[in-house]
Structures are given as C-alpha cells and as structure tokens.
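Researcher: Please predict.
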Amino acid sequence: MSVVSSGRFISIEGIDGAGKSTHLQSMVERFARSGATVVQTREPGGTELAEALRGLFLHAGMDGLTEALLVFAGRRDHLLRVIEPALARGDTVVCDRFADASFAYQGHGRGMDLQQLATLEQWVLEGRQPDLTLWFDLDPAIAAQRRVGREVGAREADRFEQQDLEFFTRVRAGYAARAAAAPQRFVRIDAGVSVAEVAAQVAAALESRGW
C-alpha cells in the first residue's frame, strides 16, 4: 500500500466528553466552503465491517488486547476502502479518532504493551498517518461532568464512557505522550475554554497550514 497521496488527512482526538464532535462538523463545513470534497468518517467504524466491529468494541466485555485487535482489524478495512481511495482522489478526510486513540485507550488506559500496539500500527497502517491531528485536551474531571450532562435523557453510555476518572487520566497521559512524540503532526487544543475560543484555536491550526 502506497502512502503517497494528494489529499489531506485530519484526525480529531480526545477523551470522551472533550467536545470534539461539536467542532468536527464545523471543520467539515469549512473545507466544503473552500471547494474541497470532504469525506467525514470515524473510528471505530467507517465501513460496513468496521461498524459491525464497533458495536462489539463498545458494548461487549473483553480485555485490552482483544480490543486492540478488533479496532485494528476495522482500521485496516477502513484504511483500504475509505481513507486511501479518498486521499488518492485528492479529497479531504476528516476522521473522528484514528490510531492515536488505540495508544491512549488500550495502551495507557488498559495498560497494554505499547510495543505490541506499535507492531500492529506498522502492520495495519504501513506508514500512513494523518497530516494533522487536533488533540482536544481536557481535564478528565470536567469531561466527566460533560458526559453526565450529555447522557441525561440520551442513549445509555457505552463501556468506555462508564470508566472511572483514573482511567481517563491515564488516557489523557497517553495522548500527551503521542503528541510529544509527533509534535509536527499534533496540535493541542485547549478544550476547557468556551466553544468560541475552541473554534478559534481550531481555525488557527488550519490556517497555519494554509487550509
């Protein structure tokens, strides 16, 4: 699989409750207004197979390795069927989570061996990484309050959203480690400020790349 492409690949990351979904749609609309063809997708998911695996991933009990194997299997299908063809066409791909989430959630959150995850990443992605990753960083305690407010009268929380504060503290540390290892790709977004201020940070990150 070649990683050469003419499109743009942006991933959005952050712990549950960080508010990334609010701004993802605005990003899609921004690119569309500029005349780009935008593919909006997500992980786990993005293809029929990966969406089927998503249901198991979010609701069936399993250990960290099983989680990682499931999500990377879906990621491979997603990459080959959706992401790579879109980038080859010159489209802009905006993805809600990508491989960084596996290192944050299964690696740091579940305590899975990071080298095992790195091996899976190498096998599955063959060098493909987003051109830009926006990390919506938020204090896990604030994120927990947001999740409670969001879940009132809504769907039942999945098994990740039900995790305790210590789990999300580890996940946040996992994202920080990934960001430190790839500073040219990551932009940290302070998700603890107002919606307008977060939107301004996102816009600045895109504008800095001429987007």
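Model: The mean pLDDT is 92.
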